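[SOLVED] Need 3D model of a two-part complex

Original post:
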Amino acid sequence: MAFWRRWSRPEDGTVGDAPVPSETPESAREDDGASVPGWPGLPGGTPADEAAIDAAELALGVQKSRAGFVGRLRSILGVADATGPSWDDVEETLIAGDVGGALAMAIVERARKRREPDGPEAAVRAELESILLPSDPAWRPAPAAPGAPAIVLVVGVNGTGKTTTIGKLADRYHREGARVVLAAADTFRAAAIDQLRVWADRTGADIVAHAPGADPGAVVYDALDAAAARRADVVIADTAGRLHTKANLMDELAKVRRIIDKRFPGAAPEVLFVLDATTGQNGLLQARSFHETAGVTGIVLTKLDSTAKGGIVFAIEDALGIPVRYVGVGERAADLVAFDPEAFVAALFA
Amino acid sequence: MFDALSDRLRRTLSSLTGRGRISEADVDAAMREVRLALLEADVNFKVVKDFVARVRERAVGAEVLESLTAGQQVVAIVNEELTNLLGAGDRVFHLSGSPAVVVLVGLQGSGKTTTAAKLARHVVRVGRRPLLVAADPYRPAAADQLETLGRSIEIPVHRAPSGTSVLDIVRGGIEASRRLVRDTVIVDTAGRLTVDAPLMAEIADLCRAVAPVETLLVVDAMTGQESVAVAEAFHAAVPLTGLVLTKIDGDARGGAALSIGAVTGLPVKFLGTGEKTDALEVFHPDRLASRILGMGDVLTLVERAQEAFDAKQTAQMEKKLRTASFTLEDMLDQLQQVQKMGPIGQLMEMIPGMGGLAKDAQASVDKGDLRRVEAIIRAMTPSERRDPTVLNASRRRRIATGSGTSLTDVNRLVKQFLEMQKMMKQLSGGRRIPGLMRR
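Solution:
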């Protein structure tokens, strides 16, 4: 957690700094080596780290409640609020962070009713945190059946970073000791298969690929068979980027999903929707459409190392209740970290 | 893409049109809606603020509120200001120098590589000989992607062994262009974040060294509030000459184009309208502003038609669309030709008043409904095609059997066609939209 929290939490010195990857490689690796339950037969957790974080968290909590107490006292005594951003400022911050005009207004409206003693920003932060679903850092895709591989289907519009995310996922799961099979089911984009193959070589994953232009459903089916035969722990399927408005391409995706359900009936595959953090209000339409087509179970928010805040996630969670599983914060394999709602909200105000 | 924005603005403003005197409170209420509509369209919040303030200031001016057509005047002001936002800068795509160097820059995943291939095809159409240069040494297989695209459109691609610096790759490309007698070099660069100082310096050095005649920022139409900051950062690093807005074939509302234009003054030069390498359009802001306000873009439609039809047919079609003397026979005649012009959804968007149907139309093409429509029309007699109102139950049953479809399919087609005819009559009849046929 250290890396992700450090660049986004205001209490820290590094707020707003560009998360230049080269500066923090050690801490990033530390984070990724952290708790690893979920894969059979692997030990989890690095207790020392957890303890440090807990201590920091506790200190923060104390600080917070003290501030809250003083604030309440102030308001009881009728002393004016500490200077801070006004309601309008906070609303503008939300809009600038791609939360959306209508939702920003609604959030501010709800926050006003909270009568939070620490002022508008604190009230809105609390409101925002209540929208985000709790994230479980120990989350791993569950096996399709006892002894069968877990299945991860990665979907999204063009250019959000699906293939890169899969490379990072493969790396992460591989380092946790899982045996990973990649399915190169983006058979449309030129050289997408080559790109995935590079990632397979880098991360030590197996890859199942057909020729360019092949039926993506067939690729996935073969990958599932290969994974079952090789007793792999997880299959990660790449799919071609598709605009959610193209009915024929969405039908193709629905077919891939049906093939998974047919090969492993009753399995609940993880369908990860990859969302570019620079996306605006269109992100909600995308999420809705992919959810209807493929049954999205989680979101991966990519390119969060840019200047974008990814506020559309609030609209998506508010409307669809799909949790964010991971965020992408760089181009290296290790730059995929578990989602931390509190840090995410803080970054919106950084 | 701009449909949703147009829909909302139209609904908001329609409460003002058709009314005589309006109060300042009416204007304020409308401006609140305009603000929300623009924000939902991802127009940058600062741009929205200025825009609303400007429109309001002009709208509550005494002479407007007291006039008897105040509502229409407010709409006209919105239209004017919107065109101003879109209309910035020099939109000519310059190709001078030997070779003319065009550099594409942008964030990861904005569509640079695909756009490079599309641009290559575009410059071939205007009579030039392009060379593509794969200057993205970072993303795995990026050069392979460009090479594959180049092969598919028969344009040579220059690439260099890994480890070659970006500057050397491009210099090598320029040398290769002389050897291969190519007069236009299109450089595909790596996607980069604006906060990545070394990569931004790299692109700045590159542009200083090779002095491109066009440096285009490729922007995803789905980009949110950050579009302005991104454009500003790239513009500060390299002098940009314009934008390419990609993925506008989705349902994003394209606020990024408005915002970047308003803040940086950079013109949008091209629109990416699909995944195929011919899906690139030259951008016309005046037409787009009227498309946003729901006035359609008949001109672009006619231009597309010109590429696919001969001139005589085009004139006929324009006339038919205008006078609504469009029969099922014409529909059959043109079904295949229309397909040559591009996705039906995009065509419909350009026809005034049809924007809302565009998505349905596209969906039905995707599902193969067009083939069914063709079969049904072919099963009709010529007189039935000219006047579908003669179709009674027994004729409809015959047509269904003859075309291998169901009675429901036949009924649906007839109903849709009659509705379409009615709509076209309305458009060309009394309720003419001002300015529609002007140019």
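Edit: The first strand of chain A starts at residue 150 and ends at 155.
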